[in-house]
Amino acid sequence: MIPVVYHLYDSSGKILGAIGVSGDSSCADHNIAWKLRHKLNLDYVPKGISPTQDDNIIYDITDGVSASGWGHSECSPGAAQIARELPKTHPVRTKEKQ
C-alpha cells in the first residue's frame, strides 16, 4: 500500500520533515497519521484546503465527482466519522506570530 504522508510543522509553520503511515486503508492511515503528528506537537499547519483550513481529509464525492476537487472516497463510515471529528478532538495548533 502507498502510505499517507503528512508534513511536520514547527511552531513557526516551517516544514521540518514528514511522516508516513501505511495500514489497512488510506482513511485509517490518515486518522492515525493526524493523531501521531498531534501527539508529537508538530501540527502547526499554516493553512489547508479543508473547510476547517487545515489538511484534513475531505469527503465530498457525489456521483463520482468531488465538489472541492480534493475529495477522497469514504473507506468506512467509522473512519469517516473519526476524520470529521479530528479538528475537534485533535485540532491543529495555531502558528506563532512572528
From TrEMBL:
SUPFAM superfamilies: GlcG-like. It comes from the Bacteria. InterPro entries: PduO/GlcC-like_sf (IPR038084). This is Uncharacterized protein.
